[in-house]
């Protein structure tokens, strides 16, 4: 059993990760009897005998049950077409909107128009049909009417959420904020206080930029301290996302 | 071959000072563009190419979509200002052919079945042509695809070997391509040791063919490690240069 | 075989059956792996052309017509004649061929045939010069794929070669700046006989001269054009599969061997 990389090393497609007997996790392929190769650019992980690569970039692939934020791009008689930053455009049927709508009598534009963000759940998707959204299952679902929506790399979502939600809980507690991280890489910072929103956005972008590095949590804690001390505007590295105020 | 041009000296030094088994200076960088899924820029000698990947995205027109996998589309195109004489921007027969063989060189590396009904577009724009454009285009395209996060069996790496002044040499420049006796571009998935593109224009003996395949592997090995450096550098901000 | 394709790629049923058959050493039409189908060559079939040929490889049919015209040379080669090769996939040949501008397959195939002729320097273009810098012979080789039962490239390349080898162009007399075409004719100056041979790779097997059903399931096709001396003058890998390194020389050996057989058929044309 030989492992050729250290935990969190950056690997590229075609890198031989290990030889021997391991279990195959995400973005790893076994070739022949005992060779394991990376299939994406990402950070290498070996946990409990499972080899995996956490992708650094890549499109969002919908999964049933994922909570996503999308933007309305088209409206037809009884449904909205919603861009969920995936190769597949989603549909939100009027019947799955939180408010009861009669699409024959009601103009559904009243509830969501093109350009609006909506928070919902993927109710159906099996790769042969386009994803169908549902906004009835939770009280949080529905049109996004206040706060800010920021785009991050969908591949970084797990780090922003943290293990069992630890990171996002930390942020919400320390910043006294209400941040929702959708699986498709949209982050919704709720509230009306622009200073609080600004802080939350900065720290989310920092986590995104450094998601693949070691010691992230301690750096986040440090940054939280700095952010809370008045008058300091720490600089944030990393790429900019599209942010849209609502 | 034009007799007046001495492309290679008796002791194996080429016009630009390289040895027969030496690549031109290579520079590559990924993530150079903002509004696409993946991108890469490569310079190999005076050849300069920009590659953008868009997708996977919904296929338009819809009827071209395949139920079980993504479609890969490639467009190899030369800018009108990329050559000595202006090249008409309309796609030539050569560009149509190269777009096809480049697609077939990249396709074996991609797990296209991950994205049914979608299309992945690879746009290879030759900004300056000085030989070896299809191979440099492939080398750059594969790292742009990797940067886009599309799952791959391996990167694809390409370079040409040729015959110049009776000798088999690595990575022809324009003068060598024009006046030499043969040009043989080859692409491989280096880790898996598989050939994905093989073409020859010119005249080679069986032995030279064998020599060429061996020599090309040396160049591919060097380029492969540069590709990996460029991909890693994408997340530390540095540029790869040799 | 330690191969990714066996791990997660799905193998079409047709290919599975064909592979099972190939593993017993037989191809679906009973041929051996290195066996070419029967090749028939007819020449001078259209008298309005300077040269013409029909080539049948099994049920695959291609015809080539050569037309020669006096025209201007390219500025960078003022003392050389011009060769233009084009291949059209007639809608007659296959339900998958549509009339209209050539698609990428047609473009690729015609460029393979073109390169085989051009890169081998088969035609002594300097002898096609009539008035340096002003008048040269322009040789058009137009190929029609008429029936597609696999391996159109070889059929087209052989047809083009047979038509060129048997073509007749008028002798000319130069009077000052004027060129007079005479009644007498001569052949096109051919110094090589470049023969394309295509080998398909299906699974791990290399088969020469693939039939249509073999082409349909093949991972890769490789066309190599070889000359009498053993020189290879063009190679094209086609299709989205891969080759192993040793395949290159194996394919060369097959292409050269079969090229010899086809060249001996061409020798009978006189």
> Mind describing the biggest β-sheet of chain B?
6 strands, mixed
Query: Based on CA inertia axes, which overall geometry of chain B fits?
Result: globular
CATH homologous superfamily title of chain C: GHMP Kinase, N-terminal domain
Low-confidence residue ranges of chain C: 1-10
Low-confidence runs of chain B: 237-242
Per DSSP E runs of 2 or more residues, the count of β-strands of chain C stands at 13
The helical percent of chain C reads 25-40%
Residue-averaged pLDDT of chain B: 93
**Overall pLDDT of chain C:** 92
Give me the side-by-side strand order of the main sheet of chain B.
Answer: 4-5-3-2-1-10
Order of helices and strands of chain C: HHEEEEHEEHEEEEHEEEH
Distance from N terminus to C terminus of chain B (CA atoms, Å) equals 31 Å
State the helix count of chain C.
6
At CATH level 3, the topology of chain C is: Ribosomal Protein S5, domain 2
CATH topology of chain B: Ribosomal Protein S5, domain 2
* Global morphology of chain C: elongated
Instruction: State the end-to-end distance of chain C.
Output: 48 Å
Give the CATH level 1 class of chain B: Alpha Beta
């Amino acid at each position: 059993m030989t492992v050729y990389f250290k935990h969190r090393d950056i690997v590229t497609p075609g890198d031989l990760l290990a030889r021997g007997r391991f279990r195959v996790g995400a973005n790893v392929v076994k070739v022949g009897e005992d060779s394991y190769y990376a299939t994406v650019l990402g950070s290498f992980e070996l946990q409990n005998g499972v080899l995996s690569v956490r992708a650094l970039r890549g499109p969002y692939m919908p999964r049933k049950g994922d909570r996503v934020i999308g933007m309305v791009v088209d409206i037809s008689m009884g449904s909205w077409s919603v861009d969920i930053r995936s190769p597949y455009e989603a549909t939100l049927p009027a019947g799955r909107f939180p408010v009861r709508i009669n699409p024959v009598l009601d103009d559904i534009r009243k509830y969501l128009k093109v350009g609006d963000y909506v928070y919902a759940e993927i109710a159906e998707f099996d790769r042969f049909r386009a994803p169908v959204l549902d906004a009835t299952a939770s009280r949080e679902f529905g049109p996004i009417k206040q706060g800010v929506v920021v785009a991050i790399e969908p591949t970084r979502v797990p780090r922003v959420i943290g293990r069992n939600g630890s990171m996002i809980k930390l942020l919400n507690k320390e910043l006294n904020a209400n941040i929702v991280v959708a699986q498709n890489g949209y982050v919704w910072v709720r509230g009306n206080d622009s200073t609080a929103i600004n802080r939350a956005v900065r720290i989310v972008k920092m986590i995104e930029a450094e998601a693949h590095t070691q010691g992230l949590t301690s750096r986040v804690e440090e940054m939280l301290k700095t952010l809370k001390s008045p008058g300091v505007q720490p600089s944030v590295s990393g790429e900019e996302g599209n942010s849209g105020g609502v | 071959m034009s007799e007046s041009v001495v492309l290679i000296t008796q002791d194996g030094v080429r016009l630009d000072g390289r040895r027969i088994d030496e690549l031109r200076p290579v520079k590559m960088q990924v993530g150079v563009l903002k509004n696409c899924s993946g991108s890469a820029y490569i310079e190999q000698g005076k050849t300069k190419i920009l590659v953008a990947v868009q997708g996977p995205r919904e296929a338009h027109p819809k009827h071209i979509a395949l139920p079980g996998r993504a479609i890969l589309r490639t467009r190899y195109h030369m800018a009108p200002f990329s050559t000595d004489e202006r090249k008409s921007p309309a796609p030539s027969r050569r560009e149509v052919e190269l777009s096809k063989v480049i697609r077939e060189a990249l396709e074996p590396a991609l797990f296209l079945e991950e994205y049914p009904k979608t299309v992945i577009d690879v746009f290879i724009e030759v900004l300056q042509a000085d030989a070896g454009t299809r191979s440099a285009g492939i080398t750059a395209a594969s790292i742009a695809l990797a940067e886009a996060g599309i799952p791959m069996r391996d990167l694809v790496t390409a370079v040409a070997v040729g015959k110049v002044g009776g000798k088999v040499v690595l990575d022809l420049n324009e003068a060598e391509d024009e006046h030499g006796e043969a040009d043989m571009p080859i692409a491989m998935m280096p880790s898996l040791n598989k050939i994905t593109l093989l073409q020859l224009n010119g005249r080679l003996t069986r032995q030279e063919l064998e020599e060429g395949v061996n020599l090309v592997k040396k160049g591919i090995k060097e380029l492969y490690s540069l590709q990996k450096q460029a991909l890693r550098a994408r997340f530390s901000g540095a540029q790869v240069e040799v | 075989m330690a191969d990714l394709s066996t791990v997660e790629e799905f193998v079409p049923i047709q290919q599975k059956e064909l592979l099972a058959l190939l593993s017993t050493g037989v191809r679906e039409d009973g041929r051996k792996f290195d066996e070419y189908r029967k090749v028939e060559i007819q020449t001078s079939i259209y008298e309005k052309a300077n040269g013409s040929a029909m080539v049948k490889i099994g049920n695959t049919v291609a015809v080539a017509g050569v037309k020669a015209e006096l025209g201007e040379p390219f500025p960078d080669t003022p003392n050389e004649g011009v060769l233009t090769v084009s291949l059209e996939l007639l809608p007659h040949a296959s339900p998958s061929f549509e009339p209209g501008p050539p698609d990428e397959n047609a473009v690729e195939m015609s460029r393979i045939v073109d390169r085989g002729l051009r890169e081998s320097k088969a035609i002594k273009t300097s002898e096609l010069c009539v008035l340096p810098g002003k008048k040269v012979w322009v040789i058009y080789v137009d190929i029609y794929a008429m029936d597609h039962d696999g391996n159109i490239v070889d059929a087209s390349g052989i047809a083009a070669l047979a038509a060129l080898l048997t073509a007749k162009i008028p002798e000319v007399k130069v009077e000052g700046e004027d060129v007079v075409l005479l009644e007498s004719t001569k052949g096109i100056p051919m110094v090589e006989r470049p023969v394309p041979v295509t080998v398909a790779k299906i699974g791990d097997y290399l088969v020469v001269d693939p039939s249509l059903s073999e082409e349909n399931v093949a991972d890769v096709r490789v066309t190599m054009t070889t000359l009498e001396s053993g020189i290879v003058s063009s190679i094209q890998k086609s299709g989205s599969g891969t080759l192993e390194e040793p395949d290159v020389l194996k394919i060369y050996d097959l292409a050269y061997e079969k090229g010899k057989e086809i060249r001996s058929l061409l020798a009978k044309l006189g």
